[in-house]
Automatic annotation (TrEMBL):
Residues with the 4-aspartylphosphate modification: D55
Coiled coil start-end: 109-146
Protein name: Stage 0 sporulation protein A homolog
UniProt entry tagged with the keyword DNA-binding: yes
């Protein structure tokens, strides 16, 4: 039997799902339904639940906050999120919090039934893994009872500040361990094969606890030999080292050498690669968690850097929290619009390199890739009215990008989509003259307010002669450049006259007329009335 909890603040939605799903035939039981995340969190604490179906937007605690709570406190619960919003930010958080499915409302009974069947398989995998781990625990009972495990748990509590520091220090002293360094760093070791970077089957994952034990022993032997700090195991899969400085100022370099030796020895003994991140120096034990969290965050750089067996020293790395891609994206977009393929690809690679150099975490890197996709979409909209042909190609694009285990793979998907946009625009704009005319119209829309805008400016932008441009522009639009420019300026002037209280000379300047008198003459010639008369009749 699979226990399911439904969470949605709309009672009609809850009733519809309860009544339209044949729970019994799927060997499922709807154990409860809650109207917000707060009620759901309290329910899960009191009742066993296998699968949670939750909406996103709810009062008190929304679906993302509930997913975060379940991810941290009940990792065995399978989460399915459904929402009326397809925003990337939600999908990004859903991935971060271990959500298994992200569905867009409205969700049909057939669709939800199919998803529940998939989630049952995931629950079965979790149960199978748990049984194997319990079996492993029973066979390793002697190991778990020994002093190394007690030491690891004590150090983990000390570093993560989950127990009073003095109590942890007293317990360590009972084991003959004294912390008396003038500075501390926490290093975190993560075996690449068992990290979230790779897809592995459930049976292979069972090896991770024993493999981490091997890593622990190798690390402990080398660190103890060098009198450099204390090794402890964090959970079942990670090994950490609390380095304490007692030596000369060259200790920094020695830490990296020790970590490199551990990497080499593990590969020699087990043929396995391990990535390591060394957190920044802290001066006292109260700050250990900051160094530890710094190292854990650094391990996420594997997504951008790619590969395994990395050694990241956070005293050397200075990641950029935010990068401004607007100028680069504008140049990329213009190259895509104009069909300059080599320049487009050059700009695209340049943007991706900027993202890599920023050492952003996965969610932020995916956000930057989303900006590239949006720039491509905008380019399509500005060049062709038949944009729906392109948009059809990207229904699941953002999810596919975020599902990739490395930045390189995500970029490959983005590249493929960009080329689809490029090919579609090339096909839609079968005539180079049509494309150039559209680009000219777009250029006028963006620069009409410049009083010095001229035919030569546009021809220089398009890199064609004035005579050729005049011919194709008239042929494609039915108007001359000057006629389109004046009409565009007058349309913008009308908008300002209708919706603002700006003076005529201010409007003239805003729409690209250096001479307010000439603006008045041109306006009357086109509309049959003066700007003042037009405003009096049309101002809202």
């Amino acid at each position: 039997m699979y226990r399911i909890l439904l969470v949605d603040d709309e009672i009609l939605v809850r009733d519809a799902i309860k009544e339209n799903i044949d729970w019994k035939s799927m060997d499922c039981e709807l154990v409860g339904d809650c109207e917000n995340g707060k009620q759901a969190a309290e329910f899960v604490q009191e009742h066993p639940v296998d699968i949670v179906l939750t909406d996103i937007l709810m009062p008190y605690m929304d679906g993302m906050e509930l997913s975060h709570f379940l991810h941290d406190n009940y990792p065995d619960v399978v989460i399915v999120v459904f929402s009326g919003f397809g925003e990337f930010e939600y999908a990004k958080k859903a991935i971060q919090y271990g959500v298994s499915e992200y569905l867009l409302k409205p969700v049909t009974a057939m669709e939800l039934t199919g998803v529940i069947q998939k989630m049952k398989e995931k629950v079965d995998q979790i149960r199978k893994e748990k049984r194997k781990m319990e079996s492993l625990t029973r066979t390793s009972e002697n190991y778990r009872a020994n002093a190394q495990i007690i030491r690891s748990k004590t150090l983990e509590a000390l570093v993560n500040c989950t127990v009073d520091i003095q109590k942890s220090l007293a317990k360590l002293e009972e084991m003959g361990i004294t912390l008396s360094g003038c500075g501390y760093r926490v290093a975190v070791f993560d075996i690449d094969l068992y990290s979230g970077m790779y897809q592995i089957d459930m049976e292979k994952r069972q090896e991770s606890a024993l493999m981490a034990f091997v890593l622990f022993n190798i690390s402990d032997e080398i660190v103890t030999r060098e009198n450099a700090g204390i090794v402890y195991q964090e959970g079942n899969n990670r090994v950490c080292v609390l380095f304490q400085e007692k030596w000369s100022r060259n200790f920094n370099g020695r830490i990296k050498e020790i970590c490199g030796e551990i990497q080499a020895e593990l590969h020699k003994v087990m043929g396995t690669e391990v990535s390591m991140a060394i957190g920044k120096w802290v001066k006292n034990l109260e700050e250990l968690s900051a160094s530890h969290d710094n190292a854990v965050s650094a391990l996420q750089y594997r997504y951008l850097i790619g590969g395994g067996n990395l050694l990241i020293d956070m005293e050397e790395k200075h990641p950029v929290q935010d990068i401004d891609l607007r100028e680069s994206l504008d140049k990329f977009k213009e190259a895509l619009k104009s069909g300059r393929k080599s320049e487009m690809e050059e700009k695209l690679y340049s943007i991706e390199e900027k993202i890599k150099q920023s050492l952003a975490d996965k969610s932020r890197a995916c956000m930057y890739l989303q900006q590239i996709i949006r720039a491509a979409d905008t380019a399509g909209e500005e060049v062709s009215p038949d944009i729906h042909r392109i948009r059809e190609e990207r229904s699941n694009l953002l999810i596919q990008v975020t599902e990739q285990k490395s930045f390189v793979k995500a970029c490959e998907i983005v590249h493929e989509y960009i080329m689809q946009v490029y090919d579609a625009l090339t096909e839609l704009n079968t005539s180079s003259g049509e494309r150039q005319a559209r680009m000219a119209l777009d250029y006028i829309q963006k620069n009409y307010m410049d009083p010095n805008l001229s035919l030569n400016d546009i021809c220089s932008y398009l890199n064609i002669s004035t005579s050729y441009f005049s011919t194709i522009f008239k042929e494609m639009t039915g108007e001359t450049f000057t006629e389109v420019l004046i009409r565009t300026r007058m349309d913008k002037a009308k908008e300002l006259l209708e919706n603002t209280t700006m003076k005529n000379y201010e409007i003239a300047e805003r729409v690209g007329f250096a001479d307010a008198h000439y603006f008045g003459i041109s306006f009357k010639k086109m509309t049959g009335c003066t700007p003042t008369e037009y405003a009096r009749e049309n101002r809202r």
